[in-house]
Specification:
nucleotide-binding, Hepatocyte Growth Factor, 5-stranded antiparallel β-sheet, 13 helices, 6-stranded mixed β-sheet, EC 2.7.11.1, Agglutinin, subunit A, lectin, alpha+beta
Length: about 775
């Protein structure tokens, strides 16, 4: 049974009378600290807000809301909300409701704010922890301006909603933000996903009526509600409508399954009353890199490594690594389905078991294959060592993984370099005997190798000692808990040779002491960083951006935020930004139609991730092709995202998303046409499209090599994005599906005006 998390340190459970604060109204200036073990309590005493000890990280603490009922033993007082999810702070840290109305978490280790409610401009007058477990910030009129229910972690309490703008993200075993999420797409379907592109559970399609939200009810039901708050999809706990149940919650657990829990008074423990995925092995990557999911004789699931004990560290990796010197063969795994997780992609063909087995053997990059024996004869090839899967006697799939015919120096004549699927399993037994016979010869060689290794180690450390005397500053080793480098201004000048190598406006090239090249952007104007933003808020903003990782986003490496000057440090890519590629006649020839579509898809994936898949909503704010660079494979990498976050011109999340969508629509038109810097490029493209001449919009440098149907589809979605009425613009998730060809798109409304600049049609106030 999956027990709810509860890691509150023991002293936290002292008498409510002694430490507690009856949190009817929490005034500005109120403060909770780790050292004092104090907390805020709901009026009914059922919930408490305060610090807890992360059991796997000594002297590391989080802050959040837990159950506090006196009927619950301390270990069962489960966490239901955590500020910042993954954020950990030191023993001398505190959380405070500032006089400006911000709820801020200050870390004593980093001497900076690591999480904030960002409500300093919302006229907050007080706070309150309500009887339903919702922590709210209120203005003078007692209106809610911020609430924990609107920023869920991994749990929903009774009465709490989940909308399309919110996401539940499971806590991983070590409290680092995990890969598993629960979200609602634009069609109103709930889905459980791994990373950004694998959905392993979703609700069945409902009626065509728009969905308002998902809600977890007090009676123990999880439902989708339409715009009239009528349920159109429901799932019920085993004890639904049982009035004797005092407490419930719904949580996305660390193993990727969504479960409903009820408090069992008789056993004084939490009882699982419903789960979304009945067979835990059906949860994608439930075993991670620990092998394949199998059922035990007790009916539970466990993870076992099918590749033997010769795996690296604690990971169960496919053994083949393309370095076989004596040939390779395939080993059979019956009733097993394997799939890759890094990347989570299989190469699928239709062929027989023998052909599938042989195709992997002949492919130097193939590590394993699975054949679905379900009448479709699908061969799923994996070209990665990061493999998992599941095994069940009732499963009709069969899998094979590749192994080398090593480590013997000379392969005997009677051992074949390839084998049939039926004889492959016996081959491992032969290989184990051969390994034993060669062990004596190998032992003497290992002694010599050990002596050479020891000499090499001595020379290596001698060289490092000499290099240390001549090395640069030692400050590079000073990184914060999320791996960001914090530089002083003088240190930043050192790595940039006094800001000598300028790449563009406020952009400089630098080299870290590790010889890694980086790009440094100086934040000068109010639009970029806000003149009124303090040091603590700046560091808090950096902490938000520093944990954002996506293959189509340029990684933030560090920052400089003192001496009145602020800089952000990004990873460096040698290829220029996309606008340079479009301008340059020679470079533009490499931007084929297929590559242009792929670049647009990459940018769309990055924006969809920022808008709906991060823990907090993040807009780009300054989207254009100048802020998209290309890597060596010409894959799009979006940079400078989130720099409008603390601008005095900042707007609401929904409006920020709409502006990003409109900018992206313009970028699509530019990419298709190759025209840049022309104010009327959108209206010209739309006019050609309306007149049935969409092909005239396409860049002539492509020489007619493009897909006409694809041009039509992409221009349609671009014109939807640039609609003057922002309410008509699609969400980035929808745009992405259209670009990928998985969602059809209707012609945009005829009333279209592109001559009016987007800044005027949707100004940022």
């Amino acid at each position: 049974m999956h027990k709810p998390r509860s890691f509150w340190f023991p002293i936290f459970f002292c008498s409510i009378v002694f430490f507690g604060v009856e949190a009817l109204q929490i005034p500005l200036g109120s403060k909770l600290s780790v050292a004092k073990h104090d907390h805020w309590i709901s009026p009914n005493g059922n919930f408490a807000f305060g610090f807890f000890n992360r059991s796997d990280q000594p002297n590391q603490y989080g802050v959040g809301i837990r159950f506090n009922s006196m009927s619950m033993p301390s270990p069962e007082q489960a966490l239901v909300w955590v500020a910042g999810a993954h954020v950990s702070v030191g023993y001398n840290s505190f959380i405070r409701l500032t006089e400006a109305g911000d709820l801020v978490l200050f870390d004593s280790f980093k001497e900076a704010v690591v999480w904030s409610s960002n409500t300093h401009n919302s006229s907050v007058a007080s706070a309150s922890l309500r009887d339903d477990g919702n922590l709210v910030l209120l203005n003078a009129h007692q209106d809610v301006v911020w609430q924990s229910f609107a920023t869920p972690s991994d749990t929903l309490l009774p009465g709490q909603n989940l909308t399309s703008l919110q996401t539940l993200r499971a806590a991983s075993w070590n409290f680092v933000s995990s890969y598993y999420t629960l979200s609602m797409d634009t069609s109103g379907q709930l889905k459980l996903s791994w990373e950004t592109n694998v959905t392993y559970w979703k609700t069945e399609a409902t009626s065509l009526k728009p969905i308002l939200a998902a809600v977890f009810t007090e009676e123990g039901a999880f439902q989708l509600l339409d715009m009239r708050s009528r349920p159109v999809w429901s799932r019920f706990g085993d004890d639904h409508n049982d009035s004797s149940v005092s407490f419930r919650f719904l949580r996305l657990d660390a193993d990727g399954n969504l479960r409903m829990y009820s408090w069992a008074t008789y056993s004084k423990s939490w009882r699982k009353v419903w789960q979304a995925v009945e067979n835990q092995c059906d949860v994608f990557a439930t075993c991670g890199l620990s092998g394949v999911c199998v059922f035990t004789s007790w009916g539970n699931t466990t993870c076992e490594c099918p590749f033997g004990s010769n795996t690296s560290n604690l990971n169960c990796l496919a053994p083949y690594n393309q370095t076989c010197s004596s040939g390779s063969t395939m080993v059979t795994l019956k009733h097993t389905l394997l799939y890759g997780i890094y990347p989570p992609e299989d190469f699928i063909t239709q062929c027989s078991i023998e052909q599938c087995w042989n195709s992997c053997l002949q492919d130097p990059r193939c590590t394993s294959v699975s054949v679905t024996n379900d009448g479709e004869a699908r061969c799923k090839m994996k070209r990665t060592r990061f493999i998992t899967g599941y095994q069940n006697p009732s499963l009709r799939s069969i899998s094979f993984f590749k192994v080398c015919l090593d480590p013997i120096a000379v392969l005997p004549q009677n051992v074949p370099t390839s084998s049939s699927p039926s004889s492959a399993s016996s081959l491992l037994k032969k290989l184990s005997k051969l390994r034993m016979s060669s062990a004596v010869g190998l032992a003497s060689g290992m002694i010599v190798a050990f002596l050479v290794f020891q000499i090499g180690i001595f020379l290596y450390f001698l060289k490092r000692r000499k290099a240390a005397k001549n090395s640069g500053p030692a400050w590079y080793s000073c990184q914060n808990s999320i791996g960001l480098i914090s530089l002083s201004y003088s240190e930043l000048k050192d790595i940039t040779s006094n800001l000598k190598h300028q790449l563009g406006l406020n952009l400089y090239k630098g080299v870290l002491p590790t010889n890694q090249e980086v790009v440094i952007k100086e934040l000068k104007s109010d639009v970029e960083c806000g003149e009124n933003i303090g040091e603590m808020q700046f560091r808090s903003w950096i902490s938000v951006l520093g944990v954002i990782h996506h293959k189509n986003l340029v990684k933030l490496k560090g920052y400089c935020g003192n001496s009145g000057q602020r800089f952000v440090i990004y990873e460096f890519f040698k290829n220029a930004s996309v606008d340079k590629w479009l301008q340059d006649g020679k470079l533009s020839r490499r931007l084929t139609w297929k590559k242009r579509v792929e670049i647009c898809i990459g940018v769309a994936k990055a924006l969809a991730y920022l808008h709906s898949e991060c823990r907090e909503f993040v807009s780009h704010g300054n989207l254009r092709w100048e802020n998209v660079v290309l890597d060596e494979e010409l894959e799009a990498k979006v940079t400078e995202f989130g720099l409008m976050r603390f601008s005095s011109n900042a707007i609401q999340n929904s409006q920020e998303a709409e502006v990003d969508v409109a900018r992206f629509g313009e970028m699509i038109v530019i990419m298709v046409s190759g025209h840049q810097g022309e104010a009327d490029v959108c209206s010209w493209a739309y006019k050609e499209w309306v007149e049935g001449c969409a092909v005239k919009v396409v860049d002539s440098r492509l020489g007619g090599k493009f897909d006409v149907e694809e041009v039509e589809r992409i221009l349609r979605v671009a014109f939807w994005c640039i609609q003057p009425d922002a309410r008509l613009r699609p969400m980035m998730g929808e745009v992405l599906k259209v670009l990928e060809g998985t969602l059809s798109v209707d012609p945009p409304p005829p009333l279209y005006h592109c001559s009016k600049p987007l800044e005027e049609s949707h100004s940022i106030q």
